[in-house]
Amino acid sequence: MDRSPAVQEAGAWAGHPAIGRVLVDQERLQERIRELGGEISQDYAGRNPLLVGVLKGAFLFVSDLMRRIQVPCEVDFMAVASYGSATDSSGVVRILKDLDAAIAERDVLIVEDIVDSGLTLQYLLRNLGARNPRSLEVCALLTKPERRKVDLPTRYVGFEIPNEFAIGYGLDHAERFRNLPYVAALAD
Ligand code: IMP
Ligand code: MG
Q1: Of the residues 116, 151, 172, 188, which is catalytic?
Q2: Which of 82, 116, 136, 175 has most Cβ atoms within 10 angstroms of its Cβ?
Q3: Residue 1 binned pLDDT confidence (cut-offs 50, 70, 90)
């Protein structure tokens, strides 16, 4: 057996009819996350940032990213649901799970899976901004610039992707494919 575990893993999904072309492969994902962790470590030197992972899509990203951050940091999670159609969010957001603790005077870094229209993030920035953090920044793994409806300050971005529905590495289609170890387009 000369096949590496990574090859076997990807191979198990090969030929699945719902999985289209690869948008970001495993190696590029991990390389970029290492870079982002380095940048964040420099920018937050001497501070103790609170990473706020947005469930469910960002759960893999936040866990890999946190392991690449070399300053003391903490993690908390929020779960939100955005009203709208299957593919378009309306910007009306409902909090399903709020943070465990107050964030006043904390350096908060929102960790998101993907910024599409930007409406969900706009809501989160307003909502968390109103709780008086010392600083509030965003780290998004993916962004689809073509779909943006609102201009937002996203300090850290992993990859720009084209206007296609992305699945894998935490991102789902009807709750499936979150465990795909890379980011692919949903086949149409
Ligand atoms: P927005 O409010 O339009 O920016 O949408 C944000 C949320 O919609 C993201 O946090 C994702 O949970 C979901 N979403 C947007 N685009 C995609 C995609 O291509 N694949 C999977 N989920 C997506
Ligand atoms: Mg999300």
Answers
A1: 116
A2: 116
A3: very low
116 in catalytic set: yes
Q: Tokens 């890999």, residue? A: 64
Distance CA 64, CA 62 (A): 6
Assess whether pLDDT exceeds 90 at residue 75.
yes
d(CA 136, CA 153): 10
- Six token digits for residue 35: 């870079």
Residue ranges and CATH numbers for the domains of the chain are 18-186 (3.40.50.2020)
Identify any residues that bridge with 186 across adjacent strands, giving them in sequence order.
19
CA distances from 46 to 70, 71, 139 (A): 11, 7, 19
Q: How far is CA 156 from CA 9, 94, 98, 143, 186, in A?
A: 29, 25, 23, 10, 25
What integer is the mean pLDDT of 56-83?
96
116 CA distance to ligand 1 centroid (A)? 5
* Residue 10, pLDDT above cutoff 70: no
Ligand in closest contact with the CA of 123: 1
CB 58 within 8 A of CB 124: no
Whether residue 103 contacts residue 133, with contact meaning beta carbons closer than 8 Å, is answered with: yes
> How far apart are the C-alpha atoms of 114 and 121, rounded to whole Å?
9
Tokens encoding 39: 């940048």
Q: What is the number of the ligand closest to the CA of 142? A: 1
